[in-house]
Design goal:
Elements lengths: L6 E10 L2 E11 L4 E5 L6 H8 L7 E6 L2 E2 L4 H7 E4 L11 H11 L5 H11 L15 H12 L6 E5 L7 H16 L3 E6 L2 H7 L2 E6 L2 E6 L1 H5 L5 E3 L2 E3 L3 H9 L26
Parallel strand pairs: 3-8, 3-9, 6-7, 7-8
Antiparallel strand pairs: 1-2, 1-4, 4-5, 9-10, 11-12
Helix pairs in contact: 3-4, 5-6
Bound molecules: adenosine-5'-triphosphate and magnesium ion.
The site of magnesium ion has 4 residues, from α1.
């Protein structure tokens, strides 16, 4: 029997007023794999993740997540997924442990304290567990955010820009976390603007540009799209960045809305209409 994909996306379209953001998006994500969705600012990555996680309705097309149709069975989809948004959902007034206990209680799980302690250990946060999340570094906050989204062991996890704003060390820690998740059988769909992140993590990489997936393949397949550059007698493979820029163009499609970044480098939450 051929295993059905964990996520199946067919012809998804979405416009905001007269701006058509998604113009027919198609792809499959194999169960237990890591799938990276690459795209410039404003390409529609978050919009697509919100459609797949039932927060937003598509104008056209269909998508199934864990074999449930997102439009017809949103409740079943929600029970099968977790979503770590582009902006961390951590409550800064609470300690790391209290954040985890809160979510476990909200999900009506038995022994929330034990679940919290287990996740703190898995994410190397045991020592920091009793401290207010407000005192955490960006990397610790991200790890806590991902830990919170794993409560209840969802088979599919969406990570919208999991390492934006993190320093290289914290980024590597989050990558290790994500790899471990996939190794344990969780299906991961992540969006990123960091090409190296996709290179490091993803089994397959899809490039979202001007509303459609313009390429979808393994890193090796994407690299084969460009001829290797010859440097004297050494053959140099193109990096994923070379492939991306050749496909998308150096300027890319930029978001015209103002970027509400705070001076400390964090990003202010956007008001989102539903
Ligand atoms: N609720 C909304 N109302 C109006 N326009 C929206 C809404 N949500 C998104 N958009 C617009 O849709 C486009 C795609 O936005 P989206 O957030 O999906 O992009 P993205 O690929 O996630 O970008 P980034 O890399 O900056 O996170 C942008 O032009 C954005 O301004
Ligand atoms: Mg986004």
């Amino acid at each position: 029997m051929i295993a059905e994909p964990a996520i199946q996306v067919r012809g998804i379209e979405k416009s905001f007023k007269d701006v058509q953001v998604l113009r027919g998006v198609d792809f499959d994500v194999k169960a237990g794999s890591i799938f990276a969705l690459l795209g410039s600012n404003g390409a529609g990555k978050t919009t697509l993740v919100r459609i797949l996680s039932t927060l937003l309705k598509a104008d056209a097309g269909t998508a199934t997540v864990h074999h449930f149709d997102v439009a017809a069975k949103p409740g079943d989809v929600r029970e099968s997924i977790s979503l770590t948004g582009q902006f961390a959902a951590v409550d800064e007034v609470l300690s790391g442990r209290e954040n985890l206990v809160l979510i476990a209680k909200l999900r009506h799980l038995k022994d929330p304290g034990a679940i919290a302690d287990d996740l703190l250990a898995r994410f190397s946060l045991t020592e920091a567990g009793s401290r207010k999340a407000a005192t955490y570094s960006g990397g610790m906050r991200r790890r806590l955010d991902i830990a919170m989204s794993l409560i209840g062991n969802p088979p599919i996890i969406f990570l919208d820009e999991p390492t934006t704003g993190l320093d290289p060390q914290a980024r590597i820690e989050v990558w290790q976390t994500i790899k471990k998740l996939a190794d344990s059988g969780t299906t991961v769909l992540l969006t990123t603007q960091y090409l190296e992140e996709a290179e490091q993590l993803a089994d397959r990489i899809a490039i979202l540009h001007k509303g459609t997936i313009i390429q979808n393949g393994t890193l090796t397949e994407l690299k084969q799209l460009l001829p290797p550059a010859k440097v004297e007698y050494v053959e140099k493979q193109p990096s994923l960045e070379d492939v991306f820029l050749a496909l998308v163009g150096d300027t890319g499609e930029t978001d015209t809305t103002a970027n509400d970044d705070r001076p400390d480098g964090t990003v202010a939450p956007r008001k989102e209409s539903r």
